[in-house]
Amino acid sequence: MKSPLEKARDAPDSTKARTLKVARRIFGEYGFHGTTTRMIAQESGVDISTLYYHWGDKADLYEAVVTDIDEDLRLQLRRVEERVAGRTLAERLDIAIDEMTDYLLVHPEVSNLVLLRYFAKTRAEPITDLRVPSFVSSIARAMKLAEKDEPVSPEARMQVLAIMNAIYNFVSGQEFFQSVVGVDRDRYVTLTKETLKFIFIPAFAGEKSFVSMTNRKEA
User: Fold this and answer.
1) What's the pLDDT score for residue 207?
2) Cβ contacts of residue 43 below 8 Å, gap of 6+?
3) How far apart are CA 125 and CA 138, in angstroms?
4) Is the entire prediction scored with pTM above 0.85?
5) Which residues, other chains included, contact 15 with Cβ-Cβ below 8 Å and sequence gap of 6+?
6) What is the pLDDT of residues 111-150, one digit of tens each?
7) What are phi and psi of 147, to 5 degrees?
8) What integer is the mean pLDDT of 30-46?
9) 90 near 206, Cβ under 8 Å?
10) Spelled out in words, what is the top-level CATH class assigned to the domain 4-218?
11) How far apart are CA 198 and CA 94, in angstroms?
């Protein structure tokens, strides 16, 4: 029998899918403890009993949200890995920064939930958590910081976390940072990517004069 999440993913126009989408956004804004099922039901345009019918209690819905995000991230990382295969490290970083920044800006709840999980100080935590450690290892191997069948070193994990956290912060802090820099959204996205590449491509690939693939195409 298919799970509620599988049914929602199979039917993107269904009530299940609509309430899941709203739950992702609201959990991303307020975290597990700051979110109520009433908030999700009202935003979705359904009553509480309908929400419970489709998803169970808040913990069940949160588990579905996290599992849904984990699956989306896994698929996105696979797409990036396919695009960067066989390229130099500088090119892999160039493409990956573009792809992941664009993806996370479309799905800001992913960055928000990760950061909320880092910094929320509560006595009770939800059972289900984002699969950050496994994703860190996958990214490290895609960047060739570790071989496919070898353990990922603590140093490589920290280096990957530096990139991931930079992207998460630029995405989650977009409204604030954009006002500080004084640019529109399109310019902010461009500057975010350029800044990330300016910092991380020389750091990892040692190419201080590296010009991004986008700039090479425009030249």
Assistant:
1) 58
2) 22, 25, 26
3) 26
4) no
5) 44, 46, 50, 54
6) 998 888 777 655 445 555 666 667 788 888 887 788 777 8
7) -75, 160
8) 93
9) no
10) mainly alpha
11) 10
